[in-house]
Fold:
Amino acid sequence: MVERANGYLGTSFLPGRHFDAPTDFNAQLSEWLLRANTRTVRAIRGRPVDLLETDYQAMLPLPPVTPPIGLNHRVRLARDYYVRVDTVDYSVDPRVIGRFIDVSATPEDVLASCDGEVVARHRRCWAKDGVITDPAHVAVAAALRRRFADDRRRQHATRYHLDGHRVALRALPDYDALFGVDFTTGTTASHLDHRSRTERTP
Structure:
C-alpha cells in the first residue's frame, strides 16, 4: 500500500462500507488491498505490489522492546464494581471494591488486575454506552450483600455496656413474669363484663 494514501482510502475504500469492530475493518481492508495494490500508480510509475519488497528492505528493524499499545489507566473500584473504557462499562470482581485497579484495553480485550491478579477479562465492545457484565461477578456481589446484611443483623442483636462487656438480651415474657403481668386472660369485652358485675355487687 502506498504511504500517505489516506485520501485514496477515504474516497475508494470507506464509502458504502459498514464495520462491526476494528478486526472487521482490518479484514475488509486486507481483501481490498489485494486489488488496490495491483493498480498502476502514476506517482511511483508502477504497481505497489511490485515495489513492496524494495520498501521492506529500506525499513528499519523493530525496537528490541515491544512498545506499549492500547489504553492503560488506574482507577479505584467503586461500589458498583464497574470500570469504564471509552463509553462502555465492564464489571469487575466485587471483592476488590475500594482498591486500585489497573485497566488495560486492546482492540480485542479489556483486562483488569489488582496487585497483579486478574479480576476481570472481557471482549472489547465497540458499541456506544454499553454495559458488559460477567454473571460470576453478579453472583459474588449478591453473596457479599447477603453476608453484609447478616453481619448487620448480628451487630444490632448484640449490645454492649460503655465499658465494652456484652449486655444480655432477655425475651419480653421474662419481664412479664418478673412484674406479675399476665396477658393470657380473656378479651377486653370479658374484662368489661366482669367489671360491671363487680360494681353491681353490694
